[in-house]
Amino acid sequence: MGAEAQHCPTANGLIKTGSRALSGSYIPLDTFVLEPEEVAGLQQQCQVSVEELMQLLVQPASLLARAPTSKFPVGAIGLGVSGRLYAGVNLEFPGLPLQHSVHAEQFLIASAAWHGERGLRRIAVNAAPCGHCRQFIAELVTADTIELAYKGSTYRLDDILVDKFCPSDLIEPGTAPLLLEQQSNGVRFTPAAEELLRQCPDLQEAASQALLSAQESYTPYTRCPAGMGLITQDGSVYGGGVIESCAYNPTINPLQAACITLAAKGRGPFSEVKEAVLAELQAESVSYAETCRIALNAINPDIHLTVLHIQLK
Ligand SMILES: [Zn+2]
Predict the structure, then answer these.
(1) The whole model's pTM is what?
(2) For the segment 222-239, what is each residue's pLDDT rounded down to a tens digit?
(3) In the chain, count of helices (H) and strands (E)?
(4) Which PROSITE patterns is this protein grouped with (predicted)?
(5) Per the residue annotation, which of 105, 117, 244, 275 is the catalytic one?
(6) Could you give the CA distance from residue 131 to residue 250 in angstroms, rounded to a whole number?
(7) What are phi and psi for residue 12, nearest 5 degrees?
(8) What percent of the chain has pLDDT over 70?
């Protein structure tokens, strides 16, 4: 790559890549996913490897962060085994404790899970991954092989998380699918929940999304699947399910997961949400209802939360 100014187009404008001005295509980075053919087209256009392209996209991705508290925008780009690229950014929620925040690496992993990606080969990020994210990445089915690129170097997870606490410390290897493997929690609504839904047809789509998200949620440690469906003012619905961590605290709760889906669709502020539907097991050791109620109230006090109970089939 030459020394003069070269540009590679992105949704956020032009990024300098080297020596040649590249006119042309709009890169829909604001959808937070690039299909393999788009990735190949960009590589061709910019004359870069996929690893170099990921590095080029990290900074533009960070411009999509929602970090009103820290004002520290983080952008991450992940390469899936499918050849797709996923973008992730940090999300912060004013008025809530800091642990409600979503980190960029978690965002992209949740987004990859949402798209049915079956593994990640590499993550590039514009800042060193925090300990919390290193721990979260340890859940991935590709944790042993994933490459982590930041500050000009590339590492394996074991290099930067020595003697890691990992899924096999809590569950027998092979007894549950790892993160990004197919999940099938086999849950359905209780008869009481189905009856409630018959009386509230407006919630049907969000409830379906919450149930689907619960079925696909990653809960090998508690066996407490849960999912959330959010309805925005214009009637659009966004879902997300729990992604647990063996270290518990880095766990993504269903509201965070649904907010990731909403943000990844390029939607406006979270205060656009008007209704929320949570699907979770009844009277289990883990419940998300109250913490989600508090968080939703901080996002917009007018959001109404409906909790629908689910049961194992
Ligand atoms: Zn982090």
Answers:
(1) 0.92
(2) 999 999 999 999 999 999
(3) 9, 13
(4) CYT_DCMP_DEAMINASES_1, CYT_DCMP_DEAMINASES_2
(5) 105
(6) 10
(7) -100, 15
(8) 91
- CA angle (82, 83, 86) in 5-degree steps: 100
Q: How far is the CA of 103 from the centre of ligand 1 (A)?
A: 5
What distance in angstroms lies between residue 194's CA and the mean position of ligand 1's atoms?
38
Average pLDDT over residues 155-183: 96
In the reported structure, the alpha carbon of residue 243 is separated from the centroid of ligand 1 by a whole-number distance in angstroms of 15
CATH 3.40.140.10, the chain: domain bounds: 24-168, 187-312
Region 265-280: mean pLDDT is 93
- The CATH homologous superfamily of the domain defined by 187-312: Cytidine Deaminase, domain 2 (3.40.140.10)
Distance of CA 132 from the midpoint of ligand 1 (Å): 5
In 63-175, which ranges are continuous DSSP H helix?
Answer: 104-114, 131-137, 157-160
Cα(89) to centroid of ligand 1, in Å? 10
Report whether 86 contacts 117 (CB < 8 A): yes
Range list of β-strands (E), 106-255: 120-125, 147-150, 153-156, 187-189, 226-232, 237-241
Q: Would residue 194 show up in a list of annotated catalytic residues for this protein?
A: no
